[in-house]
């Protein structure tokens, strides 16, 4: 892990990338930079877990073969899949790889992520990230409203 940790302020929109393919990493970094995110990169599975537990990342993009020879060896993805939802609800998680069909809900569900993107569509990554974030925001809207009301002690009928 890097000795220098980039601090995140309240105004930042943090994003975390976990890639082994340099070209895909650069494409993802560029797309997130254009969208105004402060991008951090994990070099190893351990680095990813340390970063993910220390910062509430809004967007997380993981390569299907991050630090692995086949998908079953991707310890980062397995750690996220086994993590309680309360620890990962804050992040919109996207999985990028060759074996997916972009935006196939069942594949995303099987991988416990919000969206899967095929690497052949990496040229559309900025738009695909925006769509995934928007879809996740709409999906969680009722939950977040109920949570806000519960915290403030306001009933819905008031």
Description:
This protein is of the alpha/beta class. It has a single domain (14-152), classed as 3-Layer(aba) Sandwich (Rossmann fold). The protein is 44% helix and 16% strand. It contains six helices and five strands, in the order E-H-E-H-E-H-H-E-H-E-H. The chain has helices spanning 22-34, 45-54, 75-82, 85-88, 105-111, 125-152; strands spanning 14-18, 38-42, 59-63, 92-97, 115-118. Strands 2-1-3-4-5 form a five-stranded parallel β-sheet, sandwiched between helices. Strand 1, helix 1 (22-34) and strand 2 (38-42) form a beta-alpha-beta unit. The longest helix is centred in the last third of the chain and has 28 residues, at 125-152. The chain is globular, with a radius of gyration of 16 Å.
Shape: globular
The number of distinct helices, counting runs of at least 4 residues, comes to 6
CATH architecture: 3-Layer(aba) Sandwich
Fraction of helical residues: 40-55%
Instruction: Compute the number of strand runs.
Output: 5
Question: How many independent structural domains?
Answer: 1
Distance between the termini: 50 Å
Mean pLDDT: 90
In sequence order, what are the helices and strands, one letter per element? EHEHEHHEHEH
Going across the biggest sheet, name each strand in turn.
2-1-3-4-5
Low-confidence stretches: none
> Major beta sheet, specifics?
5 strands, parallel
β content, as a range? 15-25%
Assign the CATH topology: Rossmann fold
Query: CATH superfamily assignment?
Result: Response regulator
**Alpha-beta content class:** alpha/beta
| Rg over CA atoms | 16 Å
Supply the CATH class: Alpha Beta
